[in-house]
Amino acid sequence: MGIRQRKPTTPSNRWTAINDFVEITKGYPEKSLLAPMKKSGGRNLCGRVTSRHRGGGHKQRYRMVDFRRLKRNVSAKVLAIEYDPNRTSRIALLQYEDGVKSYIICPVDLKVGEVLIAGSDVEIKPGNCAPLANIPPGTPIHNIELVSGKGGQLVRSAGSSAIIMAKEGEYAHVKMPSGEIRLVRLDCYATIGQVSNIEHSGLSIGKAGRNIWLGKRPASRGVAKNPHDHPMGGGEGKSSGGRHPCTPWGKPTKGYKTRKPKKYSNKYIIKDRRVQTKESI
By the 8 A CB rule, do 110 and 76 touch? Predict the structure, then answer.
């Protein structure tokens, strides 16, 4: 995994940095694990735009990734490492002993030919899946369940990993990539290792056209608009808006707290990710 810098043959290539895809071992997906994807263009059932700046983009098909790992105590062989256009990480194609194939999120340093297994008593190595009760503290984990059997919901993006800080009673203290420390039940499963494609954050789009390929349409700044188009528009010359940042409809953004003060999950959060301590500064 690495980043390849384009030769400056054009103005856009001068700043383009793309993946070298050296870890990819298979250039086409498994047909039995594909599903169609319909583009909405940001429009709801009535045809109204409810999510702006969406539209176009290359046609994609969904890869059915197994976040639940329900085939317990059945070993699976890694057949290939593939590219997934729907997520930032790579995916690994597994084939179980009974011939069933499935995709999982690929961890760092996973190689083709390795044997993985999910269960309560497994070896602590990248790609294996086990309950938090059987994973020692300090081990990097990803694809963490919040409800036992529901499937992994946390820590699934490229290069991310969480760490088990401690275990107390029925819960494990898990430190998230954001710095938040929260309680997760010990019977919830998680995959061992760090998510692949670590250098994803170092990529550079290089030109606006590449965003169009990804289905992202242009977005104009509010301060660049006229007063009747945006609350932050207008002013003599260039202005910073003259008010707190907001949406075109006046709703505050950029720092405006939207989380409910009495949300049910507050009791599971030991340390908020927004609270800085002297150690983190």
Answer: no
- Contact at 8 Å (CB) between 161 and 175? no
Distances 119 to 74, 95, 208 between C-alpha atoms, Å: 8, 16, 46
Kindly report the number of other CB atoms within 10 A of residue 108's CB atom.
20
Question: What is d(CA 230, CA 86) in angstroms, rounded to the nearest whole number?
Answer: 32
In sequence order, the 6+-apart residues with CB closer than 8 A to the CB of 146 are 153, 154, 184, 188
Amino acid letter at 39? K
Q: Which residues lie below 8 Å from residue 229, measured CB to CB, with a gap of 6+?
A: 248
Q: What's the pTM?
A: 0.90
69: left (phi over 0), alpha (psi -120 to 50) or beta: left
C-alpha of 102 from chain center = 19
What is the CB-side half-sphere exposure of residue 226 using CA atoms within 13 A?
2
Residue 150 CB partners (closer than 8 Å, separation 6+): 68
Rounded to whole angstroms, the Cα distance separating 95 from 205 reads 35
Quick check: 116 and 75 in contact, CB under 8 A?
Answer: yes
Token pair 């599971």 is at which residue?
Answer: 268
Distances (CA, A) of 123 to 4, 141, 154, 194: 35, 14, 22, 16
Q: pLDDT tens digits for 206-236?
A: 999 999 999 999 999 999 999 999 999 999 9
Q: What is the per-residue pLDDT across 241-266, written as a single tens digit (0 to 9) for each?
A: 999 999 999 999 998 989 899 999 99
Residue pair 166/172 in contact by the 8 Å Cβ criterion: yes
What CA–CA distance (Å, rounded) separates 250 from 230? 8
Distance CA 212, CA 209 (A): 5
Q: What is the mean predicted confidence (pLDDT) over 181-191?
A: 97
Chain centroid offset of residue 116 CA: 22
